[in-house]
Design a protein that fits this description.
Blueprint lengths: L1 H13 L8 H5 L3 H16 L3 H13 L7 H13 L3 H13 L7 H12 L4 H13 L7 H12 L4 H13 L7 H12 L4 H13 L7 H13 L3 H11 L4 H21 L17 E9 L5 E4 L1 H4 L4 E5 L4 E10 L4 E6 L9 E3 L8 E6 L11 E9 L9 E4 L11 E3 L5 E8 L2 H8 L7 E5 H10 L6 E3 L6 H11 E7 L1
Parallel strand pairs: 6-13
Antiparallel strand pairs: 1-2, 1-14, 2-5, 3-4, 3-14, 4-5, 7-8, 7-10, 8-9, 9-12, 10-11, 11-12
Length: 490
C-alpha cells in the first residue's frame, strides 16, 4: 500500500488524475479502480513522461501492480535516465551493479551513478565514492572517493559519513586525522548507523581523536551490539572486564539516552520517538505524558521536553501551559506541572513485580495530531524484563508504538502504571547491518525507576495492587482522563 500511495502522489504531480482521494478514500478503492490508475501511469510513461517511466521501472522492479520483471524495470529506468532523471539514473546504476535485468557491468554502473551524482543525488554520490574506493568501474582513487563521500556526507547521508570517517581514520585520500574521523563517525552514529557506532566506540576506548572515555565507548558498543554487530558485542565484552559495576550501569543508562537522541533526530521512521513538525518554525516535537497526582504533576520523558521554550498540554479535560519541575537526562524522565488543575491521575502498581509475557496496554498520542485529536490505545505484552545488555531499569514491550508515544504510560490489566514508553529499536539500522528485519522491539522505563526518581524529588504518587483484571476498553476509558499530549515549542 505504501507504493500505491506513492503512485497516486506522483499522479497528482504529473497530471494523471484530476481528483485525488484521501488516503482513507484510496484504501477503499476497488481493485478495478487501482488497475485503471496503474494503466494510466503506464500509458503516460509510453508517451514519454520521464517521471512516469521511472515509476513504471519501480513497479516492475518491485512487482507491484505488475509481474516482477527486472528486464522491464531496466528498460523503463533507461528511458527515464536518458531524459536526465537523477533517480532513474541511480536506479539504473544499481541494476548494473547487481546484474539485475542487465549484465553486471561496474563501468556502466559508475557512468549512471556519476550522472545522478552530478545532479546532487546523495545515494549516487556515496556509491560513486565506493566505486573509487574499491576500484570497481573506476580506477581506485581515494582522493576522488573522498570528494564524492564528502558531497553526500554534507547532505546527511549516513553511509557516506561513515565512509568519509573511515578514510580520515586510515589516511586514505586525505591526511590522517582521527579527530575528523570521530566527527563523521559521530554524525553517522547519531543516525543509528551500526558500523559508525562501533568505530566511534573504538576511538573513545583508545582515546584517538577524542578524550578516552570507557563509559561512552561501552554505550556505543551497546547500541551497535543491539543492532546485531558481532564485532561490537566482542568489543563490549572485552571492555566490560576493565570496568566497575557502577561504570557499566552508567554506560547502560547512557545507551538509552543516546538511543533517544538518535530516535529524535533520525528522519526514518522507525526511529523518532516524537513527531517533529518540519513545516513549523515553532513546534519542536510532540510526545505524551500522564498525570501522577492531584497537584497537576505530569510524568513524561526528558527528551520530550528537552530545550523547550514553551510547553503546552492538552487532552479532553485539560488545555494549558506547563513548566518543567525536574528532569533526568540519564534515565530519560521528567516531571512537568500544569498551569490548570486536574481531576484524574494514574496509579503506579504496587505488590508483585512485572513478568515476561504479561499483557499490557499503552496509551498516547502517536504522530501528534496527524491521527486525530483523541488518545490512541494499543495492546501487547512484556517480551523481556531487561533492556540493552541486561539493563534492569528498562523492559521490552511488543505493543506497537509510533512517533509521539514517548512518555506515555504502560499499563497492566488492572489499569496501573508499570512503565513509561521510551523508544524503539532502529529497524532500518538493524536491517542494514545484519540483513535481518527486526520489528516491534520497543523499550519502556520500568515504574520502579520512576518511583526512585519521584522519591528523590519528594513527589507524591499513589500505588494500587493489580488485583482486578479489567477489559481493555475500561482501561482506555480511565486512561484518557489522565493521559496528556505534550507539545514542545522551540
Amino acid at each position: 500500500m505504501k507504493l500505491i500511495l506513492r503512485i497516486v502522489t506522483v499522479f497528482l504531480v504529473i497530471g494523471l488524475v484530476s481528483a485525488f482521494p484521501t488516503q482513507e478514500g484510496f484504501a477503499e478503492m476497488s481493485e478495478k479502480e487501482v488497475a485503471n490508475i496503474i494503466k494510466n501511469i503506464i500509458k503516460r510513461a509510453e508517451q514519454g513522461n520521464a517521471e512516469a517511466q521511472n515509476l513504471v521501472g519501480e513497479m516492475y522492479f518491485l512487482g507491484k501492480g505488475v509481474k516482477q520483471d527486472y528486464q522491464e524495470a531496466a528498460k523503463w529506468y533507461s528511458k527515464a535516465a536518458e531524459q536526465g532523471r537523477a533517480n532513474a539514473q541511480y536506479n539504473l546504476g544499481f541494476m548494473y551493479t547487481n546484474g539485475q535485468g542487465v549484465k553486471q557491468d561496474y563501468q556502466e554502473a559508475a557512468k549512471w551513478y556519476r550522472k545522478a551524482a552530478e545532479q546532487g543525488d546523495a545515494n549516487a554520490q556515496n556509491l560513486l565514492g565506493e566505486m573509487y574506493s574499491y576500484g570497481e568501474g573506476e580506477k581506485q582513487d581515494y582522493q576522488e572517493a573522498a570528494k564524492w563521500y564528502r558531497k553526500a556526507a554534507e547532505q546527511g547521508d549516513a553511509n557516506a559519513q561513515y565512509n568519509l570517517g573511515l578514510l580520515y581514520e586510515n589516511g586514505q585520500g586525505v591526511m590522517q586525522d582521527r579527530k575528523e574521523a570521530a566527527k563523521w563517525y559521530r554524525m553517522a552514529a547519531e543516525q543509528g548507523y551500526t558500523y559508525a557506532q562501533n568505530n566511534l566506540g573504538l576511538l573513545y576506548e583508545n582515546g584517538q581523536g577524542v578524550l578516552k572515555d570507557d563509559i561512552m565507548a561501552y554505550a556505543l558498543f551497546n547500541l551497535a551490539a543491539a543492532q546485531g554487530s558481532k564485532e561490537a558485542r566482542n568489543n563490549r565484552a572485552l571492555l566490560k572486564t576493565k570496568m566497575s559495576q557502577n561504570q557499566i550501569a552508567e554506560a547502560r543508562r547512557l545507551s538509552r539516552q543516546l538511543l533517544a537522541k538518535i530516535d529524535s533526530t533520525n528522519n526514518d521512521t522507525a526511529t523518532e520517538p516524537d513527531y517533529i513538525i518540519q513545516e513549523s518554525n515553532q513546534i519542536k516535537s510532540m510526545g505524551t505524558g500522564f498525570v501522577i497526582n492531584t497537584n497537576a504533576y505530569i510524568v513524561t520523558n526528558h527528551h520530550v521536553i528537552s530545550d523547550c521554550k514553551r510547553i503546552e498540554i492538552i487532552n479532553s479535560k485539560i488545555n494549558s501551559r506547563a513548566k518543567v519541575l525536574f528532569s533526568d537526562e540519564i534515565n530519560d524522565l521528567a516531571v512537568i506541572k500544569s498551569n490548570s488543575p486536574v481531576n484524574s491521575y494514574a496509579f503506579l502498581r504496587g505488590g508483585r513485580g512485572i513478568r515476561v509475557g504479561e499483557d499490557i496496554t499503552t496509551v498516547g498520542y502517536p504522530l501528534g495530531t496527524i491521527l486525530g485529536e483523541s488518545v490512541k490505545v494499543t495492546t501487547g505484552n512484556i517480551s523481556a524484563v531487561t533492556g540493552f545488555d541486561n539493563d534492569t531499569t528498562i523492559m521490552q514491550i511488543t505493543a506497537p508504538i509510533q512517533l509521539g508515544n514517548s512518555g506515555g504510560p504502560v499499563l497492566d490489566m488492572s489499569g496501573n502504571v508499570i512503565g513509561i514508553v521510551s523508544s524503539k529499536i532502529n529497524e532500518l539500522g538493524v536491517e542494514k547491518a545484519t540483513g535481518l528485519r527486526l520489528q516491534n522491539i520497543n523499550f519502556a522505563i520500568k515504574s520502579q525507576t520512576l518511583q526512585i526518581f519521584l522519591d528523590a524529588h519528594q513527589i507524591e504518587y499513589k500505588m494500587k495492587n493489580a488485583d482486578t483484571k479489567l477489559e481493555t476498553a475500561d482501561i482506555a476509558e480511565a486512561a484518557q482522563e489522565y493521559t496528556i499530549r505534550v507539545t514542545c515549542y522551540e
